[in-house]
Write a structure and sequence with these properties.
264 residues, alpha/beta, seven-stranded parallel sheet, two-stranded antiparallel sheet, 8 helices, 9 strands
């Protein structure tokens, strides 16, 4: 049983392909479930070049419903990737209440007080220490988790650079994050997109698996695909790591309720 819970379509403006094309690839890859998680609109058109506009939500849902009718052999879920930015909590809550999502991925791509143009995976702060930058990121992530608005923590070590250990650099922040995830009964996404980047490992990376196992954190899997051919890409590596660290089940969702499926 394999599921891919993180997929983007051309509606979010920086991906390609329609829902049907992604589902065709998911069926070819032998997946049992696929979730679509295009980026939700943000207030005042913030970062509109990388996410859906509000008027596209109807199209998004119609695409998913049409795919469900055409491909009854695979479960197709209606999800969203919701950026957490401090101050947007009420907006996010109102938005999520408007739709009957199956799952909501929380991501942190921006820090509210960082100057425009600084993404968490590409920033330029020559006058700040690496630890200070990481503290900003994990503090924002923890505030997002503690809102209780989300189901899944997406690509939680997205800020890492190749060869860097976040666990060793900010162990206090990492422990606090894991503790908050446990208290909120959220799960962590093992995101295979890192294999397509210079990191050559998942988000979160190998060093996190023992810690996630120790704290009995629930996991799910996603490719973060931005093109149909990326669906389930590098899942063999992801599932081998899950088995290596004795994760024998992963979380699946229906209408934001968790259940577990066994992996072989």
């Amino acid at each position: 049983m394999r599921i891919d819970y993180h997929n983007h379509t051309r509606l979010c403006k920086h991906a390609s392909g329609d829902v049907i094309e992604y589902v065709e690839q998911a069926v070819e890859a032998g997946l049992s479930e696929i979730a679509f998680t295009d980026h939700m609109p943000l207030p005042d058109g913030y970062d509109s070049a990388h996410r859906m506009d509000m008027h596209q939500m109807e199209t998004y849902l119609n695409w998913i419903q049409a795919a469900r009718e055409r491909f009854p052999q695979i479960t197709i879920l209606f999800g969203i990737e919701a950026d957490f930015i401090d101050g947007s909590e009420r907006y996010i809550e109102d938005f999520l209440n408007r739709f009957n999502f199956d799952l909501v991925i929380m991501s942190v791509h921006f820090i509210r007080h960082w100057p425009e143009g600084n993404w968490v995976f590409g920033y330029d702060f020559p006058d700040r220490s690496h630890r200070q930058i990481l503290e900003d990121y994990f503090d924002a992530m923890q505030r997002g988790i503690e809102t209780g608005l989300f189901d899944i923590v997406g690509h939680m070590d997205l800020i890492k650079q190749p060869g860097q250990s976040l666990i060793k650099t900010v162990p206090d922040r990492v422990s606090a994050i894991i503790d908050s995830i446990k208290k909120q009964k959220m799960c962590v996404e093992i995101n295979s997109s890192g294999f397509r980047k210079i990191h050559r490992e998942s988000f979160p990376g190998t060093e996190w698996f023992s810690l996630l196992k120790q704290y009995e954190i629930d996991l799910t899997t996603g490719s973060d695909s931005h093109a149909p051919l990326q669906v389930a890409l590098n899942f063999d590596s992801v599932y081998k790591m899950l088995k290596k660290y004795n994760f024998n089940r992963i979380v699946a969702f229906r209408e934001r309720k968790k259940h577990f499926i066994e992996i072989d």
